[in-house]
Amino acid sequence: MDYVYAPGKNHLFVPGPVNIPEPVLRAMNRNNEDYRSPAVPALTKTLLEDVKKIFKSTTGTTFLIPTTGTGAWESALTNTLSPGDRIVSFLIGQFSLLWIDQQQRLNFNVDVVESEWGQGANLDVLESKLAVDAGHTIKAICIVHNETATGVTNDLSKVRFLLDKYKHPALLLVDGVSSICALDFRMDEWGVDVALTGSQKALSLPTGLGIICASPKALEASKTSTSVKVFFDWKDYLKFYNLGTYWPYTPSIQLLYGLRAALDLLFEEGLDNVIARHSRLGKATRLAVEAWGLKNCTQKEEWFSDTVTAVLVPSYIDSSEIVKRAWKRYNLSLGLGLNKVAGKVFRIGHLGNLNELQLLGCLAGVEMILKDVGYPVKLGSGVAAASAYLQNSIPLIPSRI
Amino acid sequence: MDYVYAPGKNHLFVPGPVNIPEPVLRAMNRNNEDYRSPAVPALTKTLLEDVKKIFKSTTGTTFLIPTTGTGAWESALTNTLSPGDRIVSFLIGQFSLLWIDQQQRLNFNVDVVESEWGQGANLDVLESKLAVDAGHTIKAICIVHNETATGVTNDLSKVRFLLDKYKHPALLLVDGVSSICALDFRMDEWGVDVALTGSQKALSLPTGLGIICASPKALEASKTSTSVKVFFDWKDYLKFYNLGTYWPYTPSIQLLYGLRAALDLLFEEGLDNVIARHSRLGKATRLAVEAWGLKNCTQKEEWFSDTVTAVLVPSYIDSSEIVKRAWKRYNLSLGLGLNKVAGKVFRIGHLGNLNELQLLGCLAGVEMILKDVGYPVKLGSGVAAASAYLQNSIPLIPSRI
Amino acid sequence: MDYVYAPGKNHLFVPGPVNIPEPVLRAMNRNNEDYRSPAVPALTKTLLEDVKKIFKSTTGTTFLIPTTGTGAWESALTNTLSPGDRIVSFLIGQFSLLWIDQQQRLNFNVDVVESEWGQGANLDVLESKLAVDAGHTIKAICIVHNETATGVTNDLSKVRFLLDKYKHPALLLVDGVSSICALDFRMDEWGVDVALTGSQKALSLPTGLGIICASPKALEASKTSTSVKVFFDWKDYLKFYNLGTYWPYTPSIQLLYGLRAALDLLFEEGLDNVIARHSRLGKATRLAVEAWGLKNCTQKEEWFSDTVTAVLVPSYIDSSEIVKRAWKRYNLSLGLGLNKVAGKVFRIGHLGNLNELQLLGCLAGVEMILKDVGYPVKLGSGVAAASAYLQNSIPLIPSRI
Amino acid sequence: MDYVYAPGKNHLFVPGPVNIPEPVLRAMNRNNEDYRSPAVPALTKTLLEDVKKIFKSTTGTTFLIPTTGTGAWESALTNTLSPGDRIVSFLIGQFSLLWIDQQQRLNFNVDVVESEWGQGANLDVLESKLAVDAGHTIKAICIVHNETATGVTNDLSKVRFLLDKYKHPALLLVDGVSSICALDFRMDEWGVDVALTGSQKALSLPTGLGIICASPKALEASKTSTSVKVFFDWKDYLKFYNLGTYWPYTPSIQLLYGLRAALDLLFEEGLDNVIARHSRLGKATRLAVEAWGLKNCTQKEEWFSDTVTAVLVPSYIDSSEIVKRAWKRYNLSLGLGLNKVAGKVFRIGHLGNLNELQLLGCLAGVEMILKDVGYPVKLGSGVAAASAYLQNSIPLIPSRI
CA D68, CA C236: separation in Å to the nearest integer? Predict the structure, then answer.
């Protein structure tokens, strides 16, 4: 089934699934185990505890659900809300759109706040809605921290600020799929009630774990939620947490050991260093885009994403051609433009287990592809701009000094 | 995290998750890939087609959902039925119990037909219900093919016979979690409408795929189902099937390649040979149990399961001690007795990628453990009985003749 | 290339290469590395130090040569001896024969002391030679600790006793290929001058490392040896040890990390526990052979080997048929009879990363094969005898209590 | 033992050991096997046959020896020559130096033809020696095809031309360690008598196989060679070839399956395409070096190597600092300058399983390091020069069109 073999490494620069570190691949290279033996609960206990750190939460309760980000969304919503509940939800790109679609199909009353794709969530509208909602009809605010389709990062602290300003009790539900473990994220400080990510994103694992952190307030809300759910029901998890066996149904043994290894690597590098590395990679990418004379789909600096950059191409170029070309000629995997920005942007994912030289190789590839498709780029220009910045910024590798 | 290390192989004889063959482990030992590249849809297409063969279906539509068996249950129910729909469901052990619990929590009107644990589904009661249901208030029959908690296999052809006898249009939904790929299963011939299994069972993969086959009638029913669902919604899959991109959300690249390898191995051995192998292992286990002077939890031969044997222990022994001892002293993983049969049975899982000498090693271990816990077993007696049968039954390995 | 696929685990009971533990496979699942980076010497240093422990030596110098046991033999001989040097060497089976062949082809003057195959080294003859060698014409005694072809273990302490008795300065060179890490071996206490093993034996790694420990006296001898060698020359190693870069040529990165993992597992289990486990497996095997009414090729208890048992078959049976049958029908790999005992014995290797239930599965298989080939064995008899002993001897697994 | 962990992939650009492709890692991720079962000889047979193709030989006999390149050298020499035989050998860098050292220590009479490091073999001197050797005292010409220390490729066809011109029967022994499978190599056409490589070079496997191809003339010579050898003796191999069991001692099962996968990948890509890829990578590297204003250690274009480039640094820079810095800051592994060129050159290995974007990432890294150590490089300049060439040269990936 490797019928699309190409020599050398695949340069994986989609914003997920991302590159898996070798130590994690090693940790997952194992037979199944009885998940009812004493070993698996002991392992699980360390995971549930340590995974809180990636949310910067000490008060949250964590769930490792055998599902994807879409399932994690569903779990966040159906455990904390009841059908008909009013949600304020921000539509700023394809993934917020999909979440809103889910919210609607789950029979919530979704109050959609739309922005142009390339802009962040319109918090002014949020404020105006909160200001007039003295009756607290808004039960939850749903927001993606980082919109993967456009490379837009929202300011969650401002959302919290507004909720506090109006003393509004709405739950704050956050999609952190392409942010957590890569961008600065502060569950407790920002009063996030449910935050979630998927294992195949910044944690750099295979797909298969929806990772959720719920605040005490979210847990409290879950007691009265009337949404119909079984597989995603937190109560079943909590029951088994109390029993000390942890699993209401069979987990993936491989992903548990993989998560253990992934967390160990994150903590060894240091979560703050991981975030700083993503910041370097994001900035370097944007400098290259600028040097190429292209525009970032993200319209203002305040929304720039350090995990994915959506690059606008001139109208005479179909960005899908760039992605196709990358794969066919350079063994480089880039992200397509989705929905409204299909054909208009291509995306460079720079999240997860990546380093600077990998990014520079990718940027050198993108330059050649741009030339391939007829854009008059100066070869080397993006790499020059990125490396001028990086050469002044990359620290020595702590373990090797 | 291998703090429970013991020398040699772990003898994994729980009825799931089961032993993964080396070629499958190898196939999964890989980095992530862009699932939107042309490679992944091409692979997926072969999987969706080939996986039908394990159901013995040519007319079904298959779904590979990133979930567990519990999620596959939910998908089967919520796609074909609407809240309030009447279901006839058979309670014969812990897993049918859990499925019924799910059916009830999903707001179906469940007509539970209970049997003593150790017996099969009471099809006489089914017949009596069908006989009086001229108005077709029964929308579905839900049945586990093989109850993993008690080692009971139900006769699905009889269920079909009854439905046909009464020309009843109820859907036939089958949990094949511990049967498909191991027991004789005939989706099309038996008129099963939805059948499902999990990757960590007879397919011998890690946990993470709920594998579902839906008949044309089930697909038709899914168009009018009003159950609330998004993650499990077949419509989203069908939309992407039509687009040729196949995935509404991110699949596990590793499990896709693993499934490819698992199917290749199954077809190389031959599905009928795989079933015959399970039949040998099941019979050998039962002969050993008999030689030990112990009783099978399954009360009649017609229900004997070829994938798991639940062994009743004398009342002066706690079967949990046997399982604990197996793990602590022999690196052998056996299944606990669950719920009503907790402490009363231990279970030997003999499904998935196993051969006869592995089973004999396990049986030799069980004999020693029985003696450890005070049961007056004659050491070697079970192995003698099992191997007397096996020595006359095991064929030469076709690839090695 | 898995065209000889058979379901389930291969039961690997040849006396090498042996089963590799999963943690070791994991450790070796990695890309190449620059062996001149600081990481590889740091790793190597720990290996050279820790590997001394498996020899029970504190004064020795160790070498990890990218070769096999045959190469390790050559390294031992050519570094310590000069062409024409007189060696007393014991011929007791195929591997001692091959070593003697090598000694002769390397132009040493080999004084062969032959025993019937199935007997140990004739130390009486050694004594008589030492007694009359006042001129110290004998430069070295070459002896296999455990003859893998016949399952005979020689008593090295007696050899040392004789050398001391006659104050003879001959070097003592020991092939520990199928003993070290499995049998009691005491380099320093027994005054062994060169001991060697191969990675694919009791260390349970892939083939590829010849592991050598040289006493100070052997190192001293190496300074004046005039044997021609380059690849195997210890001097090149010692030069790079002094430089702190350790490798005169490229090592296998994977085997180095694998050796690290293998040593970690050995030390976690405890070297004495490992030896005790081999003792249990050896005794259990011999009890089964006895129960079958068959004879051990090894003629006296004092020579019984705990790592391999050569079983004599009745003259009307060709033992090769047993080995062929094991592979073709039971996915069981047994050792052939070699040279003088070809067709007369088959061998059960019970060394390396194995546990008791694995052995019992193997013994159950051998019983069926014996019946297959027409030997009137009572099925279950060997397993019964072995497990009666094991049930009283196996300790709880320390990490799981 | 991953105490030197750094995020992202290690950029491995030493000229061996090189990057292992994922399919090869997968193929090697396996337990040991009985090498005397029918499976291993069947596999070996395909390997011995197919490996001839990488030498472009149909008449040669191949050997897969569990050793390194150093051992393969020794095998080539000791099987074809006898002590005292006169060899003409070219000293042009560290690896030819080491081979000559070996030749001398093996007691051959070595006629060393030295060139300045950075130049190729002086074939004029060879001609003058052949011209006067009417008595055929020269028994062999020993030459490295590609000197890894300086990045110099010798023209073997000229050596053959000279031998033919003078109708000289000397054997032609070629070290192809850093050339075979990467550079154009034509065993039969060039009348090479022994050619050899190591598995960790262009074949992109772990270290552990010395791979040798011997011409019929070399095999004939081996019959009369009086050099002392056992482990490296081809006769033992040939004996087991005739028996159909192939192995005189235990091979590495993992490397055999790995070699099978490596050959499959090479043939899938096409050997000529592999060579063309190396040619692209070599040229791109040299263009970058030129753009940086640095000199290639290789003095003339005719000797430029497509597998390794040794870059001369200005006298005020210690090239070791560059290598150290690469590892400590960029997770980039470069080759040190060795012996005479220590401190003066660093080496970029561009052989094995590599693609263009990987190289460009490396070059971008080298630029930053040059700046780090005080060389006034223009960032992006090397990448620009290399990618201008590559953008016009890289073909589409055949399997993906």
Answer: 14
